[in-house]
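Continuing the batch. This is chain 6 of the set; chains 1 through 5 are on the previous pages. Same settings as before, nothing changed between runs. Recording input and output for traceability.
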Amino acid sequence: MHGPVSAGWLLVALCAVTGGYCLLRMRSAVAEQRRAAGGEALMGFGMAAMAVPAAAVTPPRWAWLFYALVFGTAAVRALWAARASAHHLHHLVGALAMVYMAAVMAAAPGGGHGTGLPLVTGALLGYFAGYVVWAGLRLVPVPATPGAPVRAGATGWGDRPELARACRLSMGIGMFAMLLTV
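Output for chain 6:
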């Protein structure tokens, strides 16, 4: 990632912590939650690795090609999983955005900062800006209505839907920040 070093390290920390929480969510008793958490953990750790400031480490070209291969595989898996759940379409867009950023960096001469296609970058920025707003609005608590059934408590902190939403929100913010540097 190119930009201020301190912002890069904060993004690395945010994405790594989010990836770690997603690994814990993989212990859920619900199979669909485990699958989604696995994809989100891969995305969090991959974003952390790609966000390491260029001033600290400049990865070789093959590293960017490796990222493109890993996230290309994740995109195919998300496309296959989208048959059962529309949530995986977001995973597909995220994986394709990672492939795009890795390809831009691999094509950059001498491992320098790559310049992406403005139309693709703009479309991805628009998508993730909208996603961040939508995910943020889902975190706003709604007042309870009288007579509404009370939801039973979650079995563990790894199964709490508000934490999963916060995790997705932070990854959306991270993806938006990474796309700004392309």
